[in-house]
Amino acid sequence: MPGGTFDPWSSRNMTLSPDGGKTPAPRTEGDVGAIRAAYENGLVFRGRVDIPIIDWRHYLEDQLNMHNTRQSFVSRERIIEASGDADNQAIWFTDARPGGAQAGQIAVAFAVMDRWMAGIRENPKRTVGQNKPADAGDRCFGTDGRLIASGPHVWDGILDDRAAGACTRLFPIHSTSRVVAGGPFDQDMFKCRLQPVDRAVARGGYGSWRPGAAERARLKQIFPTGVCDYTKPPVGRP
């Protein structure tokens, strides 16, 4: 980086406490106009898609990698919210532990997609899901490329309350700070509506944690305008 040091995590843009944490760091707010423009101009994927999708990726959760695997299921959740199902999407993971990728399913995915597209061309009155080949379902693969499990229930337990499926058990999907705080799994919330700290505590917004008087005072100092109310729709979404 000319004139400075490499800063991959953009730490230069952090707003820090002026006195080492005694006074909370100043907070910033999302621009509602920019948020609305992003939605209205197609910069936010809302799940409205009617093409066949094979979401294949290496499982890289054991590495410090930005391509976190939960994004496959964020997309699935949005597709389900928009269409009622995700029959047009298949999720494939290939193990890359330890030490990185050793096998890939690109060639297999192209072959399956080719047959899927051919079926759509030959049967245009059917939906994308109805034209889906049997081997275009959800799958997971070992480091050597062998198929571990496939079928409609291999990813159970991620977007539902069922027992963890065969692939779910082998490839844990980690959460995010916003989801742990109560935000939606689909991450389709760039700016939340607010509620007073006391109301959030009374409604059980902090789970089993019951903050004492001093802790509540600290929360109010950090969040003087309130904390997120995830029961309400986001600000700025059309």
Q: Pick out the low-confidence regions.
A: none
Oligomeric grouping of the chains: single chain
How would you state the average pLDDT, rounded? 92
Q: Identify the strand order in the major beta sheet.
A: 1-2-3-4
Number of helices: 7
**Residue share in helix:** 25-40%
Q: Between the first and last Cα atoms, what is the distance in angstroms?
A: 39 Å
Main beta-sheet strand count, sense and barrel state: 4 strands, mixed
Number of strands: 6
Describe this structure in words.
There is one protein chain. By secondary structure, the chain is an alpha/beta fold. The protein contains 7 helices and 6 strands; from the N terminus they run H-E-H-E-H-E-E-H-H-E-H-H-E. The chain has helices at residues 32-40, 70-83, 106-122, 166-170, 177-180, 197-202, 213-222; strands spanning 53-59, 89-95, 139-141, 147-150, 194-195, 227-228. Strands 1-2-3-4 form a 4-stranded mixed β-sheet, sandwiched between helices. It has a two-stranded antiparallel ribbon with strand order 5-6. Strand 2, helix 3 and strand 3 (139-141) form a beta-alpha-beta unit. The radius of gyration is 22 Å and the shape is globular. The two termini are 39 Å apart.
Question: What key attributes describe this structure?
Answer:
single chain, alpha/beta, two-stranded antiparallel ribbon, 238 residues, 6 strands, 7 helices
Give the gist of this structure.
With 238 residues, this protein is α/β, with parallel strands linked by helices. The protein has seven helices and six strands.
